[in-house]
Amino acid sequence: MTAMSNEHHGPIVRPYARIGGRTRPRVDLPLEALITTTPRGRSGDGVGHPDHREIAELCHEIRSVAEVAALIEIPLGLARVLIADMAEMGLVTVHDSTSAPTGAPCLALLERVLSGLRRL
Question: Is the Cβ–Cβ distance between 84 and 26 less than 8 Å?
């Protein structure tokens, strides 16, 4: 009989431990909500949490909540909590999910949301 290796690739941390065990955002944040980084978020002022830095970098382009979750490979619920926290801190802006920030419908973005959901 051979001994099984106890080797692993780093500490195992439950995703929700990264946000103090919270499972719901303080504000309703639909998965199709559009997110962009604010000037404060771009400057790095107040961005201390590693997940916040990654989201701020991603959202230099308009991204949906679902797309952010898929791209940084975290559960959707965790992405919602992180993004809602960032919005409260002024690091990101949450836009109306029915249109692009310019007010025009954004079919390409909806397709990206669908693609992000498929990757989850």
Answer: yes
Here the contacts of 95-103 (C-beta below 8 Å, separation 24 or greater) are: 95/33, 95/34, 95/35, 95/36, 95/62, 96/34, 97/30, 97/32, 97/33, 97/34, 97/64, 100/34, 100/62, 101/34, 101/36, 101/62
pTM above 0.70, yes or no: no
What are the tens digits of pLDDT across the range 42-65?
Answer: 988 777 788 899 999 999 999 999
Say what angle helices 50-58 and 76-88 make with each other, to 10 degrees.
90
- The pair of structure tokens assigned to 20 is 């103090």
- Choose among 104, 99, 116, 118: nearest CA to 58: 116
